[in-house]
Amino acid sequence: MDYTTKFSKCRWLLVGCAVIGMVILLAGCLLHPHPNRQGSVPRNEELYSMDQHSIDDFINAEAEQLEIYEQERQLAASKRGVQIKIDGSLLGIVKDEEAASALLDQYKQIRLAPVSAPNSDVTNSGSASSKSKVRILTASIGKDQTTEQPGFIQYAEFVQHIELVKVDIEPEDIEDNEVLLDKIATGGVKPFIYTVVRGDCISCLAYKFKIDKQVIYNNNPQIRNDLIRIGEKLDLSVSQPMLTLKTVEQRINEVEVPFTTEYIEDNSLKAGIQEILSAGIPGLLQVAMNTTRIDGEFIEETEVEQKLIRSATKAIVKKGTMIVAGMGTGQFAWPVYRAKLTSDYGSRWGSFHPGMDMVSEQSGIVASDHGVVIFAGWKTGYGNCIIIDHHNGYSTLYGHLSKISVAVDDRIEKGDKIGIMGSTGNATGVHLHFEIRKGEVQENPMKYLGKAS
What we know:
Shape: elongated
Low-confidence stretches: 1-8, 36-41, 115-144
Helix content: 10-25%
Radius of gyration: 47 Å
Mean pLDDT: 81
Number of strands: 25
Number of helices: 7
Strand content: 35-45%
Largest sheet: 10 strands, antiparallel
Oligomer: single chain
């Protein structure tokens, strides 16, 4: 016989016996999981020989042991609490971390209440589902160009470092939530009520107790015109909240993008006449702005994103260039060289001033636009005066001249010299009084003139 083959068969026989033995042992353990009252595991025949009463006693004993374990566990848990520390300073003790988080969230909601929408839900996560609708009190873009949308809190977090420390406590060590909230809000400062005595004043009290006057006004809204009376009770408490809330609010604005205008000159149209060939359409830009506040006070505002919603469409305008003798262009020029204004259009010295007064280093006066002279002579109040009709609904008046260089019915081109500056009529010093009239109504010349050269 091959001894190698024989040894192999024996080896497999031994392995098989070992596996069968392990299976039998495991089955025995599963059939006898509980010790009996003497601490040994009952045999099968003992279990089968136990009557129902004995079985009930066995089950009840196990239940009692489990109940003892649970009571011991709850007792151990009841002696553990959580200290809340803010920047290392102890705020107080609560039952557990869940209670601590609920307290801090409650204070956060109180601070957000003045600007938050009802039932808002804000968390430190800053997720989209937790954004709160708020009023935005700042804006960096003009209202005439911007459609302002409601803002949303991106996130809200406390500036200070908050630490939760597990400690052994007695049940009476746990503090009331309302007491802890008040301590957070005031820094633990107790109210200081002062009774006004003779000689007291707001500034005196601020100096005496080393507090800011505004604190006195804020704490005592009943004060009017700094008037306080002897015997009056004033709240001079100076609270310093233990927690400072930082918020970042995002607002989406829609901003109009101005359109450009392309002019096409047309010599078949009179100068000053324009025809719109294609109306311009402003573009639309969506701008996301983030506003950072600490305890509601504005810190900064930054632009985070721009998105073009609609491109602007340029306007195309036909512009007349044909000059008609005696007809104005509607584009007015300054009537003196390098004018310096001495009196504006509008209210002056208790009356209405219907034009502008100006002086210049040169005394010559020129026509502001093409037109025909309809008046040249003395006019009450104006002294020597010229009126030019521009035959487009407008006329210009030049007053207080020392010399008139044109006559009625003269056709004048823009820039032609028409007279010399003077002080005739109701004038104080040499200057030009200049008016632009639309029909019979005097208008502010600055609406039609460019910047003085």
